[in-house]
Amino acid sequence: METISVIGAGTIGSAISVSLNRAGYHVIATRRRPDLNKALVGYGIEVTSDNIYAVRSSEISILTLKPADLISEVRKLSKFLSGKIVISMAAAVPIRVISGLLPDSFIVRSMTNIAAEVNAGYTPFCTAETDEEKISLVRRVLGVFGETDQVDEKYMDALTALSGSGPAYILTIIEAMMYGGLKVGLPRSIALKASYQTVMGSAKLLAVSGDHPSAIKEKVITPGGVTIDGIYELENGKIRTSIMKAIESSTIKARRISKDLFPEETEK
To answer: What pLDDT shows up at residue 32?
Structure first.
């Protein structure tokens, strides 16, 4: 059984710890206050505040730390991470920065989202080196969280905004749909279930069919029907523009964090 350490098991770290544990990996999750992760112990996950112990005991380390905390922690752990696969899930931290601190490790920059806990996340990644054997192993590990793709690093900030932050946007939409149901008299439980099931079903139909979203949407809209009145209100409220602006704003924020923390990298 391979051992994977998850350093900084907050929201995302806890989600991936559960997913990895379910897939059969031995997981050591760390947090400054392990008492906050008591729920993980119930899954059989080892929880500790000792990062050095965790990385020494594992073949792969996944760093789910805040961007501002990552570098100082990597410096402390550098000799224990030497020669190992290190996957950083810190937003906005360039892979070159981590590689400079861990020249003997195989560095991966990645980002997932909270749906990884139920094996339904999207996890893009990029690597500093080309080593097909190690990349295959990384794919296997990240594939536990759902779908995964290897991408060019230049896309990582945008994917952090689109996919990493995406559940917050979608859940806002689901919540709004539920409130709409409540407004027209549906019981809360039915309004909520109808909302999330509709979103899940639409997403699955899109994934399976391979059609463009507009093509599927047009099948629902009939002349003089119920749906077109709803679409009119959505367009009047500029929902598409709002979502596009949300993703753009999040991407700009990720790039700003990177520029502020690593100005020498953004000038290259």
So the answer is: 87
Pick from 63, 64, 65, 14: nearest CA to 43: 14
In this predicted structure, what is the pLDDT of residue 265?
Answer: 62
pLDDT given at position 125: 98
Residue 54 Cα distances to 42, 51, 192, 205, angstroms: 19, 5, 40, 41
Tokens of 208: 């399976």
Q: Report DSSP letters for 44-59, one per residue.
A: T-EEES-HHHHHHT-S
| Residues paired with residue 121 on neighbouring β-strands, in sequence order | 146
CA distance 159 to 251: 8
Q: What is the pLDDT of residue 206?
A: 97
In whole angstroms, how far apart are CA 237 and each of 34, 233, 234, 264? 45, 6, 5, 42
Work out whether the CA dihedral 67, 258, 84, 6 comes out positive or negative: positive
Tell me the torsion sign for CA atoms 199, 203, 209, 214: positive
CATH of region 166-249? 1.10.3730.10
Q: How far apart are CA 218 and CA 102, in angstroms?
A: 51
Q: What are the residues whose beta carbons fall under 8 Å from the beta carbon of 89, sequence distance 6 or more? A: 12, 16, 62, 63, 64, 110, 111, 112
Give the per-residue pLDDT at 34. 82
**What pLDDT, on the 0 to 100 scale, is given for residue 173?**
97
- Superfamily assignment of 3-153 in CATH? NAD(P)-binding Rossmann-like Domain (3.40.50.720)
What token pair was written down for 243?
A: 């979502």
Which residues in the chain show pLDDT less than 70? 264-268
Could you tell me the pTM of the whole model? 0.91
